[in-house]
């Protein structure tokens, strides 16, 4: 089945432990839960953008932005941080400038962005809240489950970090961990999770959202034949995409300047092996 990756029992047991009691957690006593229900009425606008390598691509998007800015069909869907190849997902942001920045376009490049809105309710896991969730009182060192509880808190922070960190072109296999987590949330969580929210590393005040394939992509009718009888199992209305393009929202961006932040470490010379204090 497309979108449902094989899980061995060890992996599922670990993820069951990590995400246990999702609906019970909140970031603080006066916060909403880490699982948020976004509806057509309460959800903020969602923005999505594409880098355009030619004016032909710009014209193609402008001709049908609802189709050409949406999640790609599974036949051409590449790997992403929350989806394997062939299983499309909708990547967006709650701010237009964030969705443009997340593409990391070069100076002189062109980006086209548009606004989308939800047309029905979805359940999303907010990693920004979950990382700081109240998972109960700080465990006592003498608690037999002390190390397990501490490890859970730290691993949640680690997961949020690896979701946000970009992977260099050609190294997409590094997305495997986050792809497995997305597959678990979409297919093994009860009740099902429809997407995730996570912080942007390109815009510190911005947030990204990913909507999984089962809510973001249109379901197709299936033609069947049994003992000479033919029929069509049509897609239900509830199988239509949960998100739609807002007409008149298309913006053409010309990238004029890019800001960089970097970490510099003195590099010893004349040595074949060098130990660095940070990960590439």
From TrEMBL:
Top-rank taxon, per record: Bacteria
Residue span, RES domain: 65-225
Protein name from the UniProt record: RES domain-containing protein
Species lineage: Bacteria, Pseudomonadati, Pseudomonadota, Gammaproteobacteria, Pseudomonadales
